[in-house]
Every structure is written in C-alpha cells, then in structure tokens.
Specification:
The complex is a heterodimer of chains A (380) and B (405). By secondary structure, chain A is mainly alpha-helical. Helices cover 57% and strands 3% of the residues of chain A. Chain A has 15 helices and two strands. In chain A, helix 5 runs antiparallel to helix 14 and helix 6 runs antiparallel to helix 7. In chain A, 51% of the residues are buried. In chain B, helix 6 runs antiparallel to helix 9. By secondary structure, chain B is mainly alpha-helical. Helices cover 69% and strands 4% of the residues of chain B. The longest helix of chain B is centred in the last third of the chain and has 38 residues. Chain B has 13 helices and four strands. The chains are: A mainly alpha (380), B mainly alpha (405).
C-alpha cells in the first residue's frame, strides 16, 4: 500500500499539470489511479470485514466489493486547478466516516467504518458471517472513500456524495418495526438556518424534562414487559411519541428538515418515525436489554458524529444556496433513523435489533396498517 | 373586549397606577437645595473634555440603535407573521419561533452599533481587553439566554391567551410580577465567580452600617470580574433571607481608598434597608399591568396572543412601550439611588469620601459627570456624578448647620 501511495503522489501531481494545461487527463495515469482506488477499496473492504477473500495487490476487477468508476474524459481547468481546496469538505466528511479517512481508509482507526468493522469482527468470530447491516454500513463508507479518492486524483469530475442510499446494489433493506419517512423538500429558510442552534434551545429544555420522565417510564415498562412478555400500550405510546419528538428535534437541529418542530412528537413532520404495532417480546431479551444494546449504542455514537458533520456542512450550504444538499440530508436522515431504532430498542418499544445498514433506493413497504399517509419517499 | 370596556379598564389602571406611584414615591431625602458647582473646579478639564466627547458619541450611537430597532421591529410586526410557514409546531410553538426570530433579527440589527461602540471604547482605552471576535462570540452566546427567556414569556402569555383570549393580561401581569419576585429572590445564587469578603475592617464596617440603618447584617460578597473589565461597580441583590451585597473585585484593586469603599458599602446596604428591591417589584407591577394591557390591545387585530401571528406585533409593542417607559423608569431609578446616597452620607458622615468616590468613578469609567438632560433622561439610571457630588456638599452644609445653629 505504501508503495502504491508513494507512486500516486507523483503521478497525481503529473496528472494535475496535464489537466490544467490540456483540459484532458493522461490515460495511463488515469488507469494507474483507477487501479489505486480499486486497490484501496479492496484492502479497506478486507480490513473492515466487508468482504472475505484476501485481495490482490494490483487493484484488479472482480473482488466481492468492487468499484465502478465513471472516468471523466474532460475536466474543467479551474475545477482541476483548485481540486485540493474544493475537496476539503469531502475530506472532512471522510474523516468522520472512515476515521483516518483522507490519509488511509484502508487502516480505519476511528469513525463509522472503524466502529462497524470493530463490532463486525466479534460478530464474524461468533457467527462466521458479517451481519448485513454492518456490512452495508462499511460498504457505504468505503464507497464514499473511493469517490473522494477518485475526485482528488482527478479520475472523475463528479463531487463525492455522502448519500447513503447510493448505490442500491447492497441488497434490500430488511423490514423493521421502526422506519423513517422522509417527505422533506430540501428547501431551507436562511433565517431559521442562521439561528438554528439557538432556536433549538426550548426544545432542548423540553427534551430534557421529557427525558427525565422517560427514565421512570422505561423502568416501569421494563418491569411490566418482564412480567407479561408485552410492553404496556399506554407507556409504549408515550415512548414512541418521545422517540418521534427526539427525531424531529434532531432533524431540525442538524438541518435534515426545515420547519420548527412541535413539542408533542405528533406525526406529520417531514422527517418522521413510524412505529409498528406492539408485538410480544422475549423476556430474555427484555431482561438483558441494556447489555444487548451496547454494540448498537457504540455504533449510534459514531453515526451521531456523522449527523453532526452533516448538520454543520448543511448549515453552510443552506445559508449559501437556501437548500440542503441531498447527500448530506440523506446521511443525516440515515443517522437519525438508526438513532430512532436504537432508542426504540433501548426503551422497549420494540425488541427488534437496530439495522445499521443504510437503506437502499428500493421503496420501503409499510407492512402494518398505518393511519398516516404511506411513506412517499424512502430514499433515506 | 369592546371599546367602553377598554375605557373603563384603562381608567381603573390609570387610577391604580397613580395610587401605587403615590405610595412608592416618598424617600428619606429631605427637600434639598443642591449647591451650584462648577464641574471644572471638581474635575480635571482635560479629562472632563475627553469624558464628554466619549459619552456624547455613545449617546448618539445608542439613540441611532434605538431608532434602528424600532424600524426593524416595525417591519417585523408588519411582515413577520409570514415566517409562521417555517413552523410545523402548534400555536404556542409557532409563537415561540416567531418570538425567537424577532429577537434574532433584533440581534443582527444591533451588531453594527455594538461593534461601533466597542471600537469607540477601545479607541479611548475603555475596553482594551475585549477583542471584536470575542465580543461577537459572547454577544452570539447571549442569544441562547434571550431565546430561552422569550420562550418562557410566550408560553405564559399564549397559554393564558388560549383560555382567556384578549384578557390574558389579567393573569399574565401577576404571573410576570411573581416571576420578577422569584428572580429577584434567587439572583444572589445566580451570580457566578463570587466569594465572601474577608477584609475584617470592611466586614465590621458593613455590620456597623447595617445596624445604624436599622437592618439585620447583610453578607457581602466579592464578584471576580477583573478578568473581563476594570470598571468599578457594586450592587445589592436578593430579598429577605437571600439579601446580599456584591462588590466587584475591581473596586478593591487599590484605586479606591478604604473610606470610598466604605461609602459604597453604606450605599448598597441602604438599598436593602430602604427596601428598594421590594419597591422595585412594586414599580415593576405598576408598569407590567398597564403594559400587558396595552400589548393585548395592540395584538387584537391579529387575533390576540392566542394566535402565533400576533407575536411579531406583541414584540414590537413590548419594545416600543419599554422605550417609551424608559425615561420614567430612569426617574424612579435615580430617585432610589439618590436615597441610597443620602442614607450612606447619613451613615458614614463622610462627604469627602463621597466626593472622592464619585470623582474617581468618573475618572475610571470615563463618564460624563453632567451629560445633556435628554441623554440623562433616556439612559441614566443613576443621578449624574455632578449631582451626587452636589448632594454630598448639600449634606455637608446641612450637617454644619446642625452643628452650628
């Protein structure tokens, strides 16, 4: 890898000169860079347990986690000249997603991919399989890393997108009792964007007060579920409303949605949580719920960092253009969805384990009778 | 409410306010004829010129800021209700959003004036330790407290308006007065970075002055502010069992003599012994009741404060009424401060210390000792330094008269 990287530094500088002068890349250098991006992705997938076989050393095609790169024949000279500066936001996002990200995604030491791989290692040892959610999550991070490298190395002129719904090749999203509905149109009011942090102050106060009550309710619910094998319906409704409210506030604070949310967690917000009807819950799972949730809590922390990063990036973008970039919006929505599933698991709203993988483009069916309009946009 | 009902209510409020003011107005200050005093004889002429120039600019800057605020809030009252479309919350939540956005717009409006003021202060060496970015950051952070405050106020007002509609002020005004009492009572515990005063001589003096003024001993605390400012200050806070006196550590940094600090102590103790905090509650109530009534009247056309769309109008009415009431509030404040000065003179019997103290205050705070009357009416919560020195001289003359009949 270091040999590759050493060569790429010089070839990238050479490519940069070629493009700034001619407007077109030198084909051999492009091929070299494509192979490098493919190789780093393969090695990253092997380290992160996204794929199993030992990868080759030359970036050949055919690895179980492979990249398709749409090579640009032409580059804007200006864009190429300032490529490193333009790439700064993407490199920062990469750091959140892949830990060391910009420098070495193939040795993830932090970020979402690292934590997913760390948890996946235990799962693989125990089960002999990588859980689908973790596999898809690491694949998402590696795909983004590949896009960033391809952009920085002038292989492509397309800006990397943090959209976790792309590509849809990761397989269908399994059904889950907690789903996120996104009806947001990405328009953002510049005025509310500018004051977004402080506009959330009353919600933070209310969330804190509500949260104190929720602690007692969860203890009561836990005892009830242990005794009867089912959660108490009134408490479950309250907890579901709390999770919805928490998601609304998170969506508002981190720019995933535009309107100022209400204080009661009523459905109808552009980023909304749908909760399936209650089912019986295993008493064993209930008994050890907090311990079982630890891996999800760890991953949730990493995804919350992604949410914050998407919020900060989105704040600047929304102030400038009055819209939230789709990639950042969907990355934030993905983190919120997982957050809602983790909270629903922790508060005994459901005993289904949170699914960490990013949802795909395939429409999410609502398998239960829902009094609300069916989800119209399942892109998050 | 219909028009005749409004008139009756207004009449009752005017009579009530007049009676309340009549009860709160008297002080212990006798009918004094303040002696004429040439400020150039008291202050260094060069320093005086600089202080006058310094404050004149600040006064005009503040006046311009007030005008800008009124214009911007007027526009917000006219068009601000359209921002309700940015809310998915109910009436009260949307009202909170509109209230916060109104304050946010106000905040943006005041940034240039604040920066100009800081520039001017730095130019005159009055704010050397404060950088522009530091100021902006602290100004930005102060927004969170303001947002929280306006949300609380709107929850109360709009909550009552859901039930009482246009008559929300009948319950709202007493609630605000109760909150004012609560805040006044708890304020001493909210002051950060304070410690007890340990100087035995000053502690003994505070105890002695309290006894002379006929009140229980009051704890004196030192507030650590020297990291942010070198301006001297002190204040009385709390009521009944929470009564305390706070002295900034900048007052004890050696620039003021002990007798001057003792004069400050006597002054602050007088605020407590003369029940100025409770009287402040009374005056607040006198303004809060008609004020909330007028805000309720102003918001009628937008459906009263039951509707979120009325919040921008209410905000404008509140700020406009506050500005209109400011000269009266300042008169009340100056009257209490005069009484505290007088009681302090009666307690310490040291007009020289008072004179030195006020001269030093003028010097260190770069304050104009005799600002124009319009500026004094609009901005001064304390008597002018020249008037305070004149009072000390009046006390001396009166004391000498008592000694030599």
């Amino acid at each position: 890898m270091n040999v590759w990287a050493f060569g790429v530094v010089f070839s990238a500088i050479a490519q940069w000169f070629v493009i700034v002068v001619r407007g077109r890349p030198a084909a051999p250098l492009t091929d070299f860079h494509v192979a490098f991006v493919r190789y780093t992705t393969n090695v990253g997938a092997y380290f992160a347990l996204t794929a199993n076989p030992f990868p080759g050393f030359l970036g050949e095609q055919g690895y179980p986690l492979d990249v398709e790169i749409d090579v640009a024949e032409q580059h804007g000279r200006l864009s190429a000249a300032f490529r490193l500066i333009l790439a700064v936001p993407a490199l920062l996002a990469l750091t959140i997603l892949d830990g060391q990200g910009a420098v070495a995604t193939y040795v993830p030491v932090g970020g979402v991919v690292f934590f997913a791989a760390f948890l996946g290692w235990f799962a693989c040892l125990a089960l002999g399989r990588m859980p689908l959610g973790l596999r898809n999550l690491t694949a998402y991070g590696l795909r983004y890393a590949a896009e960033v490298y391809a952009y920085v190395l002038l292989v492509t002129a397309t800006y990397p997108t943090t959209d976790p719904t792309l590509p849809a090749s990761a397989g269908p999203t399994p059904e889950h009792p907690i789903i996120l509905e996104v009806t947001d149109d990405r328009r953002r009011s510049r005025l509310t964007t500018f004051f977004r942090l402080f506009l959330t102050v009353p919600h933070m106060v209310w969330l804190l007060l509500w949260g104190i009550a929720v602690v007692f309710v969860v203890v009561g619910q836990w005892l009830f579920a242990l005794a009867t094998g089912r959660p108490a319906a009134p408490l479950r409704r309250l907890l579901a409303a709390y999770i919805r409210y928490q998601t609304h506030v998170g969506a508002f604070l981190f720019m995933v949605a535009n309107p100022f949310p209400g204080f009661t967690g009523r459905p109808g917000y552009p980023i909304d949580v749908h909760v399936a009807p209650a089912e019986r819950q295993s008493r064993w799972v209930t008994l050890f719920r907090l311990f079982l949730g630890v891996p999800a809590f760890i991953l949730n922390g990493a995804l919350n960092a992604l949410l914050v990063a998407a919020g900060i990036g989105g704040w600047f973008a929304a102030l400038a253009i009055g819209r939230m970039p789709e990639g950042l919006r969907n990355a934030g929505a993905h983190a919120l969805r997982y957050n809602a599933q983790v909270n629903a698991y922790a508060t005994l709203v459901t005993d289904r384990y949170p699914f960490s993988g990013p949802p795909t483009l395939e429409p999410i069916e609502t398998p239960w009778a829902d009094p609300l309009p069916a989800p119209v946009d399942a892109t998050a | 409410m219909r028009r005749p009902e409004h008139l009756v209510v207004a009449l009752v409020l005017i009579v009530g306010a007049a009676l309340g003011a009549w009860a709160l107005w008297p002080t212990k200050v006798p009918d004094l004829r303040l002696p004429a005093l040439d400020e150039r004889a008291v202050f260094d002429p060069e320093q005086l010129r600089e202080a006058q120039q310094f404050e004149r600019f600040l006064h005009w800057n503040s006046l311009a800021s007030m005008v800008a605020v009124l214009i911007v809030l007027g526009l917000y009252a006219w068009r601000g209700h359209r921002l309700a479309r940015e809310s998915a919350a109910g009436r009260i939540g949307t009202g909170m959003l509109l209230g916060m956005l109104g304050l946010g717009i106000l905040w943006i409006t005041q940034i240039p004036f604040g920066l100009v003021e800081l520039w001017w202060a730095r130019r005159h060496g009055a704010a050397d330790d404060v950088g522009y970015l530091e100021w902006l950051l602290s100004y930005w952070l102060s927004l969170s407290g303001e947002f929280a405050f306006i949300c609380l106020a709107l929850v109360i007002v709009m909550g009552f308006a859901q039930v009482l509609r246009g008559r929300w002020w009948v319950a709202g005004a007493p609630t605000f007065v109760a909150l004012y009492v609560l805040f006044s009572y708890t304020l001493p515990w909210l002051i950060p970075d304070d410690r007890p005063m340990r100087d035995p001589a000053l502690v003994a003096a505070a105890r002695e002055y309290a006894r002379e003024q006929g009140t229980e001993p009051i704890p004196v605390r030192i507030e650590e502010v020297s990291a942010y400012t070198d301006s001297p200050n002190a204040f009385a806070a709390g009521m009944d069992s929470s009564r305390k006196i706070f002295i900034w550590d900048t007052l004890l940094d050696g620039r003021f003599a002990d007798d001057e600090v003792r004069m400050v102590l006597a002054h602050e103790i007088a605020h407590h012994s003369r029940e100025h905090i409770w009287k402040g509650v009374g005056w607040y109530a006198l303004f809060a009741v008609p004020g909330t009534f007028l805000i309720a009247l102003a918001t009628r056309r937008r459906g009263s404060l039951r509707e979120a769309q009325a919040v921008p109008v209410a905000l404008f009415a509140f700020v406009a009424l506050s500005m209109a009431a400011q000269p009266i509030v300042n008169v009340v404040g100056r009257r209490m401060e005069s009484e505290a000065d007088w009681v302090a003179l009666e307690t310490t019997e040291d007009p020289d210390a008072a004179r030195d103290l006020f001269v030093h205050f003028t010097e260190f705070a770069l304050a104009d000792p005799s600002p124009p009357s319009w500026a004094s009416a609009l901005f001064d919560t304390h008597p002018t330094m020249l008037d305070r020195i004149r009072m000390a001289e009046a006390w001396r003359a009166r004391s000498e008269g008592r000694s030599h009949p």
